[in-house]
Amino acid sequence: RAKASGRDRSELFDEEMRAEATRLLDLEADLRRAILADDFEPWFQPIVDLATGQVVGHEALLRWNHELRGPLPPGEFIGVGEDSGLIEQVDWLVYRRAFEWMARHREGYVSINVSPRHFRSDNFAERLLQMLADAGAEPARLRIEITEVALLDDAPRALRMLKTLRSRGIFALLDDFGTGFSALSYLHRFPIHALKIDQSFVAGLGDDLHPESLALVRAILALAGTLGIDSVGEGVETEAQAAILRQLGCTMGQGFLFGRPMPAPAAERRGAA
Ligand code: C2E
Ligand code: MG
Ligand code: MG
Ligand code: MG
Questions:
Q1: d(Cα 110, Cα 257) in Å, to the nearest integer?
Q2: Which atom of ligand 1 is nearest to 237's Cα?
Q3: pLDDT band at 186 (very low <50, low <70, confident <90, very high)
Q4: What is residue 102's three-state secondary structure?
Q5: Is the pLDDT of residue 77 over 70?
Q6: For residue 96, which of 30, 118, 206, 246 sits 20 to 30 Å off, Cα-Cα?
Q7: Which residue's CA lies nearest to atom 4 of ligand 1?
């Protein structure tokens, strides 16, 4: 804050605001160029059956092959992508590549992330099915990951969408479960295939500093049990976390312990092994 000397706070604040606004505009322009150049690709991270250790599927995770800044994770640009609406275009580019990989890679399912706004858009299901057909990929091997927000905003519409997708064999998972505004009372009305336990809770498992994590994970797994659906522990980094999840009845796991997100060729080799 030494820079502030001689100037008042509001001036500095204005300057910072302007700099941030400029940065966001630049990023948005960059994103538009990258969409035209098709500079995005999915990386794949394995999801394992916790009981057997077998890889049952992969999550497709968006990366931006930025010419200067290298493969960028979504955290670097998703905010701008969502505010500008550009994320939908990015998503379609990544989904198409994920479906092409799915058609070549014959094992297990592939799950894709769908932002709430995108999930609510018209013709989402039709376009997804068309793209799967064009890629020669089976709908029944696709899963979509949505967050609780996608269900709550317009519940009747979300329900229709989920039913349409499920009638074609596409299951939905609730991502980052436990971090949103969980309306437990009507979760059972939606055809949800599995809950993904947010990595913030998994990170605290077996950790004396975060004893509440165990209680939360236990509660989420009890809920999944009551609903009769599967569960995926996210962000599993240690054997101890995997063991606790397994012991609590969590059916699947995902995290650096089992494999990091990787570009397609490496993931294909792993799948073939
Ligand atoms: P998510 O769907 O919850 O994905 C899990 C995130 O956790 C990924 O971050 C993954 O790389 C990271 N992760 C996996 N295992 C571990 C672990 O053991 N430890 C730690 N610390 N992290 C782990 P990533 O790839 O940066 O993606 C962040 C978020 O961006 C995703 O969270 C998802 O919400 C969103 N996203 C990813 N791909 C897409 C996409 O194609 N479209 C849209 N709209 N959003 C996407
Ligand atoms: Mg996800
Ligand atoms: Mg998640
Ligand atoms: Mg997340």
A1: 19
A2: 18
A3: confident
A4: helix
A5: yes
A6: 30
A7: 61
